[in-house]
Amino acid sequence: MATVSMTVNGKSVSGEVEPRTLLVQFIREQLHLTGTHVGCDTSQCGACVVHVNGDSVKSCTMLAVQADGSDVTTIEGLANGDTLHPMQEAFRDNHGLQCGFCTPGMVMSAVDLLKKNPKPSEGEIREWLEGNICRCTGYHNIVKAVQQAAQA
Amino acid sequence: MYEFEHHKPASVADAASAMKGADDGKLLAGGQTMIPTLKQRLASPSDLVDLSGIAELKGITVSGGTVTIGAMTNHAAVAASADIKSALPALAELADHIGDAQVRNRGTIGGSVANNDPAADYPAACLALGATIHTSQRDIAADDFFTGLFETALEDDEIITKISFPVASKAAYVKFPNPASRYALVGVFVADGPAGIRVAVTGAGQDGVFRVPEMESALSSNFSADALANVKVSADNLNADIHASADYRAHLITVMAKRAVAKI
Question: Are B111 and B32 in contact (CB under 8 A)?
């Protein structure tokens, strides 16, 4: 077993994990932050996207021990109390979700995009979201949501 | 995933000795291939030696006509580097189209080159530009480095420290990505630089990345897309799978090479 310590959503946490424990398992099963989803578990669908030291990553493709000492933000860390993050608000306004399974990853990925490219074109949004798969909405309203958030 | 021990050394020397001390050790770079491989139980190393704590393996320098990239530099950093965009824009563009944004935030150049996946992008750049792979033990020319499918000249305990690319006056990379995985069905890197005119192909070869001498000589007499129009690449020794037949890949090599030259 290994001890890992990190900051998750602004709070210091630590835990005992096996080296083979994935970051997403640590987040969901030990920290009980179940907003981060596991979809494909093969690094393709993006439901598990969180931020590690400010960059979006697939938490199913990172070991918890690799995140030792890192600053992690999950979907639970975006809203400020009852006030949604502008990206969350934009997804709601634009009906950017139906079943909601992919949404945490979509939102975390889109937030990283706007940090690096505050005024993306539609093409740049679609290209950036290549690593996030949605089976409901057909992406159109997701792209509109990101465009609205970029105006906010 | 089977169990393993995790080590996080602070220097290349410590990483090499951790590898020596392990029964069946594997190096962990960004993990974007290693972790999926472990999850599928396609590998069961006794120890993983994590290179992420070694500061000397990170960073980008451009000087004296050479772009040097530390092995643990991720694809996003290469794609965003103003120095690389100015000196060797084709390399930054290649990095910007590996996998997806999240993979680029974790995946590293050293990991990609060491793994030598037959559909990876970086090996084509290394071969076309005549890169040098610097390791904990020696310097290896790209020509001697890629030895077959997932095979390289690296010894078991040998660690890539950095990769240096001579700046080419002309360079472009075009790939036909698999629509699902974004791996190259065929990717072609064309360069005219200190290593001469070179055309390197990834995604297609049964033995991994390879050069196309017929295209190189056609471009030497006439550096234009038209010069490649009649160069037919043989489908012998090309990959065939559910995504594309060997014949289709052979066809795509000419198309991608023409597009790459047209881009320059």
Answer: yes
Q: Which of residues 51-110 of A touch B (CB under 8 A)?
A: 55-58, 61-63, 65-66, 68, 109
Inform me whether the C-beta atom of residue A120 falls under 8 Å from chain B C-beta atoms: no
With CB atoms and an 8 Å threshold, state whether B76 touches A42: no
Task: Kindly list the residues from chain A whose CB atom is less than 8 angstroms away from the CB atom of residue B79.
Answer: none
pLDDT at A152 (0 to 100): 80
A113 in reach of chain B (CB within 8 A) = yes
Of A18, A19, A55, the CB nearest to B105: A55
Pairing of strands B160-166, B170-177: unpaired
Mean per-residue pLDDT of chain A: 97
- CB burial readout A68-107, b (16+ within 10 A) else e: bebebbbbbbbeeeeeebbbbbbbeebebbeeebbbbbbb
**Nearest-CA distance from A113 to chain B in Å?**
9
Cα separation, A6 vs B63, whole angstroms: 37
Give start-end residues of each CATH 1.10.150.120 domain in chain A.
86-151
* Torsion B214-B220-B221-B226 (CA) sign: positive
ipTM value, please give it: 0.96
Start-end of CATH 3.10.20.30 domains in chain A: 2-75
| Residue A85 pLDDT greater than 90, yes or no | yes
Tell me which H or E stretch contains A24. helix A23-25
Architecture of domain A86-151: Orthogonal Bundle (1.10)
Single out the residue of B55, B6, B59, B19 nearest to residue A68, CA to CA. B6
Kindly list the structural domains of chain B, giving each domain's residue range(s) and its CATH number in brackets, ordered by start: 5-51 (3.30.43.10), 58-263 (3.30.465.10)
Query: Which whole-number Å values give the CA distances from B118 to A23, B80, B90, B105, in the listed order?
Result: 29, 25, 20, 21
Q: Do B101 and A131 touch (CB under 8 A)?
A: yes
Indicate the CATH number of A2-75 among 3.40.710.10, 1.20.1250.20, 3.10.20.30, 1.10.287.3240: 3.10.20.30
Rg, C-alpha atoms of chain B: 18
pLDDT tens digits for B238-257?
999 999 999 999 999 999 99
